[in-house]
Amino acid sequence: MRTGLGFDLHRLVEGRRLVLCGLEIPFEKGLLGHSDADVALHALTDAILGAAGLPDLGSLFPDTDPRFKDAPSSLFLREALRLISEKGLSVHQVDLVLILDQPKLAPYREKLRENLARLLGIPPDRVGLKAKTTEGLGFAGGEAVAAWAVAVLAEDGA
User: Fold this and answer.
1) Three-state DSSP class for residue 98
2) Exposure pattern of 134-148 as b/e (b: 16+ CB <10 Å)?
3) Tell me, what DSSP letter sits at residue 125?
4) Based on the structure, what is the number of domains in the chain?
5) Are 13 and 6 in contact (CB under 8 A)?
6) Which of 100, 101, 98, 89 is nearest to 128 (CA)?
7) What CATH code is carried by the domain that includes residue 43?
């Protein structure tokens, strides 16, 4: 087993879609970034890459590359899964914490969790997903959305 940790943070701004865990969430603001800025998938992809000893998200998919402008972050995740597969690894379990004050994610939690499981090709009971607020303290939560992710990889056949 191998374990990786990922983190990401993007500012909330008007005029952008809010995409989390690969799904659009209805909200008046979205996340600012070169791609769709899905902090959950960015943190998760970094956790997977780190567990496999591979370069990080920014190294593989730089925000200076026009090919990734407004790209869905599921593209980055799919590539990370391909890379770990080449090393004889697969995702065993993941756990994510999203930090935001608005919108409330409780109505979307199961759909988000199921979509993560689908993207990863693992059962939903191997996907942990929590949403936490900052109670109005700090920039993460009010002005931005942050995500922490842990990924556990297994060697194929183990």
Assistant:
1) strand
2) beeeeebbbebbbbb
3) G
4) 1
5) no
6) 98
7) 3.30.1330.50
* Longest CA pairwise span in the chain (Å): 47
Separation between Cα atoms, residue 132 and residue 89, nearest integer Å: 31
Q: From CA 75, how far away is CA 45, in angstroms rounded?
A: 10
| Cβ–Cβ < 8 Å for 140, 146 | yes
Give pTM, 2 decimals.
Answer: 0.94
As given in the structure block, the two tokens for residue 124 are 């939903």
Q: How far apart are CA 8 and CA 145, in angstroms?
A: 8
Q: Which residues contact 146 (CB under 8 A, 6 or more apart)?
A: 7, 8, 9, 39, 98, 99, 100, 140
Residue labelled with tokens 């759909």:
111
Q: Which domain holds residue 139?
A: 2-155
92-147: pLDDT as tens digits: 999 999 999 989 999 999 999 999 999 999 999 999 999 998 887 766 657 899 99
For residue 25 the two structure tokens come to 């969430």
Residue 145 contacts residue 79 (beta carbons within 8 Å): no
First to last CA, the chain: 9
